[in-house]
Amino acid sequence: MHVLITGAAGMIGRKLTARLVADGRLGDRPLDRLTLADVVAPTPPEDGPSTEVVAADLTRPGAAEELLESRPDVVVHLAAVVSGEAEADFDKGYAVNLDGTRALLDAVRTAHLADGWTPRFVLTSSIAVYGAPLPNPIPEDFQQTPLTSYGTQKAIGELLLADFSRRGFLDGVGVRLPTICIRPGRPNKAASGFFSSILREPLVGQEAVLPVPESVRHWHASPRSAVEFLVRAAVLDTALVGPRRTLSMPGLSATVGEQLDALRRIAGERAVRLVRHKPDEKIMAIVETWAAALDATRAERLGFVAETSFDEIIRVHVEDELGGVLPS
Amino acid sequence: MHVLITGAAGMIGRKLTARLVADGRLGDRPLDRLTLADVVAPTPPEDGPSTEVVAADLTRPGAAEELLESRPDVVVHLAAVVSGEAEADFDKGYAVNLDGTRALLDAVRTAHLADGWTPRFVLTSSIAVYGAPLPNPIPEDFQQTPLTSYGTQKAIGELLLADFSRRGFLDGVGVRLPTICIRPGRPNKAASGFFSSILREPLVGQEAVLPVPESVRHWHASPRSAVEFLVRAAVLDTALVGPRRTLSMPGLSATVGEQLDALRRIAGERAVRLVRHKPDEKIMAIVETWAAALDATRAERLGFVAETSFDEIIRVHVEDELGGVLPS
């Protein structure tokens, strides 16, 4: 099994790579080859199968075609400009999230027409495809009227994935990810960044800024769950998915207050006191257009599973990022 | 008031032009200029305001920018490859319906950023944005999971229109048109063509082919109503529309059998006998993914109105296309 990951240097890309290497297989087939692509060449894993790392900018004409020359069995397309950046930089967001995705899909089609290659294509979408006012939970048959350019670009990706799958150029599965929490590492430009930092920083004794009220409710899953979603999407029997190729992933619906309650239970009041309330209307304006919860029944029936408490989400972070122990 | 119409040589484009010239105004402002664009330069109206006709292929780099140099107050974007052709010719459909529309939107944005120009932008969408299985009627908050490339391209157009409007580059209104019935003139490549030909041809004593069962239910409005929708969309107070910029237009839900009953009432059994049943699985496969009826409550509240019987739709055709009399 040969897997290509775009955006492989990103947080999810690195975790997916590690997971695949650790498993040594994908579904019931051994993993014998990895291609890891990103704008800057990703670091190859120390062990594992034959791995090629590629510096590829999908917005450059010809880049997608080159990347697909080795005809991977599975393409996991993670490369994207995050929501905050896509909102701040209109041109970059459309270039990467729309044109880059389309270039990759078009290059798959060109290859398919040339030699019949029909890879599994896993596309990451987002709850940002939905825009307020929203029902809670959002049924999967709800309209996609995003209120950010990022959400618009992701919704277009879902439409293209379905049409290219229907045409038989590729075998697509879209995963509509919850907000990933707790994101490890440094904050990125995602407007949703605070959902992670209000837990991640206090867990290691550092301050964090909360730009929205504690009553804000949102839809979360851990990085570990996100990786599990992608692995499952890569091997799923798409006959069970049908023409509506993107699935709302399961998640945990929680308020910021409930996040902080879980932090208190796990790391004590001292940790919670490190969260500084500093309202930011710009972030609030984006976040309030987002989903509080999605109906993920279809994905759940297909075996996708997420965390059921924020205590669990914090514990996953402690296990995967902090070596299983909290700093004293 | 300066109005630019793309696809102005098409059926709706010509009717919209004639209507604007006849009114001599749009809303409460006099019509003092028209720009009519199509792949082949449209025929200018005999009377009316200052009119420029332009041969413009929006898929050619720079074409959209040139077309917008005169900064029209209203852009009505009708140019499109129809459903059957977009399904048969993947590249052409995406080039015209997606890239052409995006080029026009991007050119508006470039001009807006240069000098603040913010035109009303009327985009035609279609019931083809919805794909089976579908509720009847389709609520306006229903997901868009089209099952044709045409529907995919129109759904993407709706998403872009909303994002460009939200960004303030233009003031967009999308009209999700029913199937236009009775289309005058010769059949085109639309898979929906038979809905018109089974009435149009028999009304003038000619045979027509019906490729689907009489039980097929569909969603219709006359060309006259379609033009009225566009005129209303061009002057609508968009503060009343909000961020969900595309409106499902009202229409008439009727079966093919009900169409033929109306034909019988107006033109007699002899006319109905001219309809030859010749099942075509390829057309049926496309048509059965389409809508039987849409909930158009939001548009109706904003004053959009369509026909309420097929007798009325046939009478509109007789008045507008046959000089008000049936050939004996």
UniProtKB/TrEMBL annotation, chains A, B:
<dbReference type="Pfam" id="PF01370">
    <property type="entry name" value="Epimerase"/>
</dbReference>
<feature type="domain" description="NAD-dependent epimerase/dehydratase">
    <location>
        <begin position="3"/>
        <end position="206"/>
    </location>
</feature>
<dbReference type="InterPro" id="IPR050005">
    <property type="entry name" value="DenD"/>
</dbReference>
<dbReference type="InterPro" id="IPR036291">
    <property type="entry name" value="NAD(P)-bd_dom_sf"/>
</dbReference>
<keyword id="KW-0521">NADP</keyword>
<dbReference type="InterPro" id="IPR001509">
    <property type="entry name" value="Epimerase_deHydtase"/>
</dbReference>
<keyword id="KW-0119">Carbohydrate metabolism</keyword>
<protein>
    <submittedName>
        <fullName>SDR family oxidoreductase</fullName>
    </submittedName>
</protein>
